[in-house]
């Protein structure tokens, strides 16, 4: 296929004309959280902002803190609706519902991509989840991905991994184009971008804007925020909204902005970039020669002058007409947006990516296995072939079991990174309608927890068990391995809960270490539970160490005969002296308790994932 033929095929995806977005009287505020969760005063980010954005290149420009990104997020439905005190956003004259976030495309400022996957694999992931398999075959999806790769100029790096902190990947411009391609998979007619040129060199930034300009010429409505672009970028804008202190100081055709400010008495220097000229005006570094402008005494005189202009009056008249037509329409009931794919289909795709990410990330796969083997050999050497003569027999076994339980629990501290490291990816993909929260959570259990947390434990148990010379029958070994696995899962469950509840790894370490230490203290090894203060005794019932140690003692001591000065001592006698119920249910109640702790923590972790704030 020739290049020209490709462009014709690609255009078939973008024939539909983009919508017109209108917004009127937007007042958006945030409330700062102070010490002890006391609310501070409200701070208005947007103050009476109105405008119209049609198909084409719609740029929102302004200095840092001017409100340009907040305006973009409010229009795109990415801001907390609680903060929107007044105003409304319409798309083609219709009230915006939650479906806008799934039908439109939003490219975040920081490229959020799975680093262990290649450019093609990331695009394929988006296509598999966001294109209905009933209407798009595998061949259609492949052609869509290949077309976008060629159209975005990603052919040379299509099979190169995005890159992680351990793996060098594609360049910044290629990452940005891949992020855009992820959103173009659904052929959206409305595309939002948050500062797409940030962090890029001027040449790469220009190529990104050229790409957006080509998309806009196919009928798309492209709305993006941008800080201070060079002239070759500015001249590609169709519509410009200039923000300052949360208000609009200009909104209209981009090629008429220079004339507007010239009429206000501002003179641009020869060969000066219009974008720099606009920033000088809003920052007060350029002075007007007209007294009518400088005489305006208010917080934002440029915004006041714009509201008095004929250009603003024309926009407001058109907005009044649109709002009136909406008021005459019957307001329909908003329905929750549907996902493009089914639950099981999402599970297959997301689990596949999770497995691939684990295999390509040595920290979460090979290192975990190597660490378990190392500790198994270490424990086996320290407690090698423990004798049955007392007091060495009981002392060594007690120390070995306590050491094993500590290793099983604290060895899962790495699990607190799981949701924290992928928090940004989960929020972005879940908000954009890639998959359900339950799918993401279950994929971590099936494709990450089982291979990385459960299987290595059985290898660990097999090495340590027989090196330490514990009861040689297979039934005892199976119970021992089951107990170690449930102890590990209980520790992972608590780590998952903490990981899903906080966004800081430092805070997660503090929150996970504290309950582990309390569980260890009240596990029955360091403190006699019968001599414990009554108001603290309840803590033993939520101790992973208590249930794990009790089950380990029952497995090893029940049916075992020890020797003290040639006198036979049955293991059941030792269990009775410790107050441990060694009946069949006595063993299984410990396993059920560990399973209960795991399920409760996992359920609460899922609840916390659903409660994550997805608003900016």
Structural overview:
By secondary structure, the chain is an alpha/beta fold. It folds into 2 domains: 17-104 and 224-340, 3-Layer(aba) Sandwich (Rossmann fold); 343-610, no CATH class. 51% of the residues lie in helices and 13% in strands. It contains 24 helices and 12 strands. The strands form 3 sheets. A 6-stranded mixed β-sheet has the order 6-7-8-3-9-10, with helices on both faces. Strand 7 (190-194), helix 7 (202-216) and strand 8 form a beta-alpha-beta unit. Helix 20 (474-501) packs antiparallel against helix 22 (544-557).
Descriptors for this entry?
disordered N terminus; six-stranded mixed beta sheet; 616 residues; elongated; Rossmann fold; 24 helices; single chain; four-stranded antiparallel beta sheet
pLDDT < 50 runs, ≥5 residues = 1-15
Q: How many structurally independent domains?
A: 2
Portion in strands? 5-15%
How are the strands of the biggest sheet laid out side by side? 6-7-8-3-9-10
Mean pLDDT: 84
Oligomer class: single chain
| DSSP E strands, number | 12
Structural class: alpha/beta
Global morphology = elongated
Major sheet, described briefly? 6 strands, mixed
Give the radius of gyration: 32 Å
Helix content: 40-55%
Task: Count up the helices.
Answer: 24
How far apart the termini lie comes to 43 Å
